[in-house]
Amino acid sequence: MNKEFPRIMKMGERSILIEFEPEILPNGLEKLLFFKNKLENLYSEVKVEVINTYNSILITYLFNIENIYSEFPALDELFKDTNITKNNNFTLFHIPVCYHEKFGLDLDFLSTQNKVSNSEIISLHTAPIYTVYFIGFLPGFLYLGGLDKRLQISRKNKPRLKVEKGAVGIGENQTGIYPKSSPGGWQIIGNSPMELFDKNSNPPCQISAGDKVRFYQVSMEEYDQILKEKRTGKFQLKSEKYNG
What we know:
Largest sheet: 5 strands, mixed
Strand order of the largest sheet: 7-6-13-5-14
Helix content: 10-25%
Number of domains: 2
Structural class: alpha+beta
Oligomer: single chain
Strand content: 25-35%
Mean pLDDT: 90
Distance between the termini: 25 Å
Shape: globular
């Protein structure tokens, strides 16, 4: 392991931040999730929240720690483990997206800027199997890695005051779905009828860091049909064990 990383530092009176190498790579996520799991086991009998981003883990206690630095030796010992095992217990989710002009507010802009046709944008967006690096910004907002370079584009200079729930957007080298209506600056290319976060479900979000996502195109008619089936409980999100 890089001698400079991980870095362990205090964040306020109740949190510890652990930073890993800054590169956003699948093997980096593998290592991060391996240690996140070890941390959850370490603190299994203590009330803490353990969350991750692309290259960091935040441990937040539900109470102030009198001497937060007293936690560092146990963490140092934990990170000496270099036998990082690969986790194959991930799920691939197939998520429908409608790229109709009603939803693809920035399709033409992306087409002009990146010199690819609208049909090519859809083909390039639905081709990859994306990796879920973490969930944040909004509950159920998936940060996905694996976007084709030909689709990468800057965020809007002036964000929209309201992006509709289900909007599928691109921001820099990322793509994702807005799980609820929100201000946002990503370039919007479609909309998914899926419910990615439900506070009444357990867990509220079916998808976790490390899982995979693949988008598939649906027509307006199919989109409306999925919405109807969701209301009656007939629609099931397609998923399968990922063996990549």
